[in-house]
Design a protein that fits this description.
alpha/beta; Rossmann fold; 2 domains; seven-stranded parallel β-sheet; six-stranded parallel β-sheet; 15 helices
């Protein structure tokens, strides 16, 4: 079939490496590798390592859904029209929900022959986000009617999109580059390593893990070679470091701060247990799949709706939100049962293959072509 010109449209910046950014870049790389032309029409972005990147707006940093992100505040119509005329896209793939100031204007001004696809990524953390989403749905109502097809990354995102935006969508999970995480050298030292990765903000629940480590430390049931790694940065770092010092676990808990993508892969591959204790606001949980693909660690995750959608076949690896006691029991079990760890890792590694970028990417491509053929 003919090669396509695909534009990924995203109001936020590609300077960060959060879930939506990873979704876009993983698909974009795969499509480029198999011969399609891929363009990124995004909010204010400064990185220079991405080909065909169009930074189309000035953005303002805001907090939404307990996340730090940026939203467009100024877009030049002249610049938009010039880019859209230059590219003449076959597919415009919009990341949803979207701002009326950038993606919304692209949708209104794009060529009539361009297929408009959407992927809905979020779930509201609390009533404020839900009310904000409902208000946004009224503002972008006319643009929503122009979509040819919409996907949601999970059932919980699908439900939120239906309730707050009246969207009908089909579920298609987030892609992970399985081979990227799976290949490489595994264990590099003799430590038993527990890894937690994410921004150090309240929503990510890091304190739940630290409390569980304190429980096990006080009981004296942690192995002598234990090492707990907290990878990521954020406003709670100083408070979490203080908690560790005050509770005498600072010798075994190591805060790495911000890490690169390469460092992240190495950490996943060296871990024995990965813990993701987020208390809510997760629509999917790409970090779980990345850790599964690395094929070395047991995954333990808080039972929020997004993580549950990924671990639905592995419910025993979920623990109640904020429940450090049950998390401590699960950590203790897997520390003491290496054969069970090996068994679980094998199953979850195979499961992660379903979300390989080639699988998700090909399903999307099939939909792109199917809609184009109907034109």
């Amino acid at each position: 079939m003919d090669k396509l010109k695909i534009g990924f449209v995203f109001d936020d910046s590609l300077d960060r490496t959060d879930g939506v950014q990873q979704y876009i870049l993983a698909l974009g790389k795969y499509y480029t590798d198999i011969g399609h032309q891929v363009f990124y029409l995004v909010g204010e972005t400064n990185r220079t390592d991405i080909n065909n990147l169009y930074s189309l707006s000035k953005n303002l940093k805001v907090n939404f859904n307990k996340n730090s992100l940026s939203t467009p505040v100024y877009v030049s119509n002249k610049k938009l029209d010039a880019v859209l005329n230059e590219l003449n896209l076959d597919i415009a793939h919009i990341q949803m929900p979207f701002s009326p100031l950038l993606a919304g204007r692209i949708i209104k001004r794009i060529h009539h022959n361009t297929v408009i696809i959407g992927t809905f990524h979020i779930v509201g953390f609390n009533s404020i986000e839900k009310h904000t989403s409902k208000f946004l749905s009224y503002i972008i109502k006319n643009q929503l009617s122009l979509f040819d097809k919409i996907f949601s990354v999970s059932t919980v995102a699908q439900d939120f999109g239906k309730k707050e935006f009246n969207l009908s969508s089909e579920i298609l999970g987030c892609p992970v580059n399985y081979d990227l995480y799976h290949t490489g050298k595994k264990k590099k030292d003799d430590c038993f390593t527990i890894l937690s990765l994410g921004r150090l903000v309240t929503r990510k629940g890091t304190i739940t893990l630290l409390k569980s480590i304190k429980i096990l430390f006080d009981r004296g049931t942690l192995p002598d070679n234990i090492k707990v790694i907290i990878a990521g940065d954020g406003p709670l770092k100083a408070r979490l470091v203080k908690y560790c010092k005050d509770n005498n676990i600072d010798k075994i808990v190591h805060f790495l701060g911000y890490i690169s993508e390469d460092e992240k892969i190495s950490l996943y591959q060296a871990a024995d247990i990965c813990v993701f204790p987020a208390i809510g606001g997760e629509s999917f949980g790409i970090v779980l799949l990345e850790a599964m693909a690395a094929s070395n660690a047991v995954i333990l995750a808080a039972d929020n709706s997004g993580y549950r959608s990924v671990l639905n076949d592995f419910r025993s690896q979920l623990f109640p939100i904020k429940n450090s006691n049950i998390l401590a029991k699960k950590i203790d079990f897997f520390v003491k049962n290496p054969l069970k760890r090996k068994e679980v890792v094998k199953l979850t590694s195979e499961y992660a293959k379903r979300f390989d970028v080639t699988e998700i990417g090909d399903q999307l491509l099939e939909n792109y072509y199917k809609i184009l053929l109907k034109r």
